[in-house]
Amino acid sequence: MTIVNFMPLDRRHPVALELLRAQLDEAAKRAAEEDVRLIVPASAADVIDALPEGSYVTADDSFGYVYANDTACAQVVKGEKPLPSAVGGTTPDVAPVVSGESWLSGDSTKVVYVGDARVESSAKTTTADLLAAAGVAAADVKAVYLGYPACQFVTPAHFADEVVLSCDEAKVIGSEDCAVEAVRSILETFRHESCGRCVFGNEGGHQLFAIFTDACTGKGQDSDIALIRDLAPVMQEQSLCEVGQKMASVAQQALDLFGDEIEQHVSRHQCPAGKCRALVTYHILVSRCNGCGKCLDACEEEAIEGKPKFVHVVNQRACTHCGKCLDACPKGAVVTAGLKKPKTPPHPIPCRVK
Q1: Confidence (pLDDT) at 191
Q2: Which helix H or strand E contains 284, and what residues bound it?
Q3: What is the mean pLDDT of residues 339-352?
Q4: Residue 64 pLDDT more than 90?
Q5: Cβ atoms of 1 and 37 closer than 8 Å
Q6: What does the alpha-carbon distance between residue 254 and residue 102 come to, in Å, rounded to a whole number?
Q7: Strand partners, 4
Q8: What is the C-alpha to C-alpha distance for residues 211 and 184, in angstroms, rounded to an integer?
Q9: Nearest 10 degrees: CA dihedral of 14, 18, 19, 23?
Q10: How far apart are CA 306 and CA 166, in angstroms?
Q11: Could you tell me if 224 and 211 are in contact, meaning their C-beta atoms sit under 8 angstroms apart?
Q12: Is residue 281 pLDDT above 80, yes or no?
């Protein structure tokens, strides 16, 4: 028997499930004829109703990555929880697992979401071709993260290298984006996937996520970088399944590729990209402010000076970086800044714009 996994690795872009819905009649016929067991989300009632009885099992789709593991899928087929007992593909006498996309479309093509762009590509391609197909200018990209199970960052120097696509989503980190925040958001997708059966996969994963969260919120400590370097290799060796191993790999790659940005976040509490609200300063541009007072009303700390028809000014000592003024300004006059600060007056001055 072969287990066919239709559980979404990425719930925002459930590629295999999309293809199953598009080819449901053919899939139902094959499922009745072949020695397979399909794993489908319990929430996909339309799919379940069309499949022949006994050809499928349903599972909780709040998990995703874990269903790529053969031992976890074997548990689901038995009617138990998807708890992996070993790294996928290493356990004898366990039914092999193939992705639903591969079962339906073969291994020569792949559907990947690059941001919100749906790209149909050859499974063997280059990152440059993938970006071009998605309409993304490679010159504006700092790195591309090929999601689970690859969990690989590709930098511009390697955009022309061949890659084998296995992920449902590729995350573009633009040249103006904060790489530390990007890594934090990637680690967040893993943190609820841990089965909790091993210390390094569970506690280590939460520790890595906490470190990158602290870095983006101004709570980072100098010892955090050394902790990542010590923890990541051990997690890759000791985690029972791929979730812990891949989290460690992501953190290790981030240090190697974005070490300077991480250092500035952790040691200097600065976000060079000006994207992490807790680490940036807020400024009001003379060229845009019309003195409407909406930022004044939004600021609960009274950290903004101003009056009608005068350019308002942020008191940097009183500002708590909550970002409410940024959201309140209808003219886009409130901006954030990283290392490079815009020129603003020390006190309110008459507005130049209406």
Answers
A1: 81
A2: strand 281-284
A3: 92
A4: no
A5: yes
A6: 30
A7: 38, 98
A8: 9
A9: 150
A10: 55
A11: yes
A12: yes
C-alpha 224/C-alpha 235 separation (Å) is: 16
The pLDDT of residue 62 is above 90? no
- CA pair distance 10, 152, nearest whole angstrom: 16
Angular region, 282: left φ>0, alpha ψ -120 to 50, beta rest = beta
As a whole number of Å, the CA-based R_g of the chain is: 24
Containing H/E element for 325? helix 324-328
- 303-317 confidence digits (pLDDT tens): 999 999 999 999 999
CA distance 295 to 304: 8
Return d(Cα 265, Cα 254) in angstroms, integer: 13
The model's confidence at residue 195, banded by pLDDT at 50, 70 and 90, is confident
> Can you spell out the DSSP letters for 124-148?
EEEHHHHHHHTT--GGGEEEEEETT
- Do residues 301 and 338 touch, judged by C-beta distance below 8 A? no
Do residues 80 and 96 make contact, with C-beta atoms less than 8 angstroms apart? no
For residue 309, the model assigns a pLDDT of 94
Per-residue model confidence (pLDDT) at position 55 = 97
User: Which neighbouring-strand residues pair with 3?
Assistant: 37, 97
**Predicted confidence band of residue 107 (pLDDT cuts 50, 70, 90):** very high
- Nearest CA among 76, 81, 42 for reference residue 61: 42
Which residues make Cβ contacts (< 8 Å) with residue 269, sequence separation at least 6?
A: 218, 220, 279
In whole angstroms, give the CA distance from residue 172 to residue 257.
15
Q: Please tell me the predicted confidence (pLDDT) of residue 338.
A: 79
DSSP string over 229-271: HHHHHHHHHH-SSHHHHHHHHHHHHHHHHHHHHHHHHHHS---
* Whether residue 90 has pLDDT greater than 80: no
CB 312 within 8 A of CB 302: no
Terminal C-alpha separation, the chain: 72
